[in-house]
Design brief:
single chain, about 200 residues, Arc Repressor Mutant, subunit A, Tetracycline Repressor, domain 2, 11 helices
C-alpha cells in the first residue's frame, strides 16, 4: 500500500496520534508483514513524527502487542463475530464462520489470510508477549466454538470445536495462499458433514 507524502495540514501529534499509529499498523502489518514494516513507514502513514511514535509506544514490539490486543478489544475477526449472531440457530452460527472468508476473497485488495496467524509466524522466538496474545485469542475462539457447539446439542463439544477449528483454519490458510474460494466451500461442506454427524451421535 503506497503512502501519500506528508500533508502539512495534518497534525503530527495530538490526542489522535496513538489511534493513527494503530490504524497504520493494522494496514501495513497485514499488507506487508510486521518485520517488513519499519518505523519510518509507520510514522509516514500515520502522519506523526518519530518522536511522537516513541512517546506513544516505547518500541515497535510494544506497537505489535497493542495491534494484536485490538483484535480482542474491538470485536475480534469477522468470522468469530458470526458466533454471536442472534438471528441464527447455534448450528447455523457454527457454519456461518466460513462466510466472511468468501467475502474476503471477493475483495479487490490482496488477501493474506488470518492476521493473527501471520503475526504468529513472525513472532515465533522473537516476540514472546505477542505470541502469548495470539495464543490466548485462538484459545478464546476455541472456547466460543465449544460453547456454541454445546448450545447446538453436541455431546462432545470440546472435540467438535477442535475439529471445526482445524477445518476453518486450514481453509483460511489454503484459500488465501491459492487465492481460491473453492477451498472455503469445501471446508464448509466438510464442516456440515461433521456437524450433522456430531448432532446425530448426540441424538443417538
Amino acid at each position: 500500500m503506497a503512502t501519500d507524502p506528508p500533508n502539512p495540514a495534518v497534525r503530527t501529534g495530538g490526542r489522535g496520534a496513538r489511534e493513527r499509529i494503530l490504524q497504520a499498523a493494522g494496514e501495513l502489518f497485514y499488507e506487508r508483514g510486521i518485520h517488513a514494516t519499519g518505523v519510518a513507514a509507520l510514522v509516514d502513514a500515520a502522519h506523526v513524527s518519530t518522536r511522537t511514535f516513541y512517546q506513544q509506544f516505547e518500541s515497535k514490539n510494544a506497537l505489535v502487542e497493542a495491534y494484536l490486543q485490538r483484535f480482542e478489544t474491538n470485536g475480534a475477526l469477522k468470522s468469530e463475530l458470526q458466533l454471536e449472531r442472534e438471528d441464527l440457530s447455534p448450528a447455523d452460527r457454527l457454519l456461518a464462520i466460513f462466510a466472511p472468508l468468501k467475502e474476503m476473497l471477493s475483495a479487490p485488495a490482496a488477501v493474506r489470510g488470518c492476521p493473527l496467524h501471520n503475526a504468529a509466524v513472525e513472532a515465533a522466538g522473537e516476540m514472546p508477549e505477542a505470541a502469548r496474545i495470539i495464543e490466548r485469542h485462538k484459545r478464546g475462539f476455541l472456547d466460543r466454538l465449544t460453547a456454541v457447539a454445546t448450545e447446538a446439542g453436541i455431546a462432545d463439544a470440546d472435540a467438535f470445536a477442535r475439529q471445526l477449528a482445524v477445518i476453518y483454519e486450514g481453509a483460511n490458510a489454503l484459500a488465501a495462499t491459492c487465492n481460491d474460494p473453492r477451498f472455503v466451500d469445501d471446508a464448509r461442506t466438510a464442516a456440515a458433514v461433521l456437524l450433522n454427524a456430531a448432532r446425530g451421535q448426540a441424538r443417538a
